Amino acid sequence: xxxxxxxxxxxxxxxxxxxxxxxxxxxxxxxxxxxxxxxxxxxxxxxxxxxxxxxxxxxxxxxxxxxxxxxxxxxxxxxxxxxxxxxxxxxxxxxxxxxxxxxxxxxxxxxxxxxxxxxxxxxxxxxxxxxxxxxxxxxxxxxxxxxxxxxxxxxxxxxxxxxxxxxxxxxxxxxxxxxxxxxxxxxxxxxxxxxxxxxxxxxxxxxxxxxxxxxxxxxxxxxxxxxxxxxxxxxxxxxxxxxxxxxxxxxxxxxxxxxxxxxxxxxxxxxxxxxxxxxxxxxxxxxxxxxxxxxxxxxxxxxxxxxxxxxxxxxxxxxxxxxxxxxxxxxxxxxxxxxxxxxxxxxxxxxxxxxxxxxxxxxxxxxxxxxxxxxxxxxxxxxxxxxxxxxxxxxxxxxxxxxxxxxxxxxxxxxxxxxxxxxxxxxxxxxxxxxxxxxxxxxxxxxxxxxxxxxxxxxxxxxxxx
Length: 466
Fold this sequence. Notes:
Elements: H1 4-74, E1 79-85, H2 93-96, H3 99-121, E2 129-136, H4 138-147, H5 155-167, E3 171-175, H6 182-195, E4 200-206, H7 211-220, H8 224-227, E5 230-233, H9 240-246, E6 250-252, H10 277-283, H11 316-319, H12 326-330, E7 342-345, H13 362-370, H14 375-380, H15 399-410, E8 462-465
Parallel strand pairs: 1-2, 1-4, 2-3, 4-5, 5-6
Antiparallel strand pairs: 7-8
Helix pairs in contact: 3-5, 13-15
């Protein structure tokens, strides 16, 4: 017979089971709650991801459409640009001698050659436009051509440029005038502009072998992606400043169009064709040749009269025998024999002009500058382009005004610098602002004179008689 103790024990065991059952139910309920929360969060995340993916897909479609439109715009109007410095890239003589027709022929041949080169080297560029800009000191280049006997008339180079500029829409020769680094500065800024232009697929750079260009090209090398966008055009052979840097660029040359040999500038070059007053004015600002007077002197205004008086062209060997006093054409000549003409030089052989710029009245100098007087007419006695000259020929100047005008002319650098042998040259051969021993002046790098024209020893030890 079971006792009460037995029932108590059985009851305790059943109570323990109920407790375990309740704990199990609570644990199951907690687990279900956690799973429901996780499921709900997962569902929310899934829905959010689905919406995000849908939005991404829509955005991607929009981007692809935008990229397609941009690519269409980028592929529209492709072009290559040719930037040439006239100091290092010079057209062949046979083009220059033909004047306007030579300019047209040179432009068309350059375009044909470039088109074939681009099609072969850059097949991915379909029918690009070719833009060519040549930066040139036209006056100085004309003088150089005359001194080398390439042209006999000063208008030939101007005719060549006109023919070149009129031949094609994007072909032009830009006259930069005289001055240091003008072409380099313009080409550098243009190259920076085109270098990042998506429509410009290649830049052809033709330049002389100067440290300015080599440094600029070295700076571009720091970005390897840009070097492939530049091709160097070699005209006159590259020298040491460009030899090192050119290895990193594509280099090409067009010998059928450009000179591959330097143009020299001898003083007594063999002139070709008819030697006219106008052509002599291009050879030098102040002619040095003298001839004996005959009964057929040249008139002051007849700038196209032939020296022989017969209209036949003269050879270089005939010039010394021509019986016309060229000095009478340039300026009035006093009676009697002319004194010998001298060019004074220092111990280094550098030309020294006796001229004290500190003694020139600055107010008077500035006043005469504003009058726009013709240096040729007042200082040499004859303007080679008087009919079309835009400067004043009508004033009567005092001796002091002529002296001041000479100082103004000396502020323009002579193209031949310290080596100039023309005793009547009116232009400057040393910087008027610099002092002996000082290699610069207050203008610094903006000075129109070359660095070598500063700090010149003005002690004269040598005189060259002309």
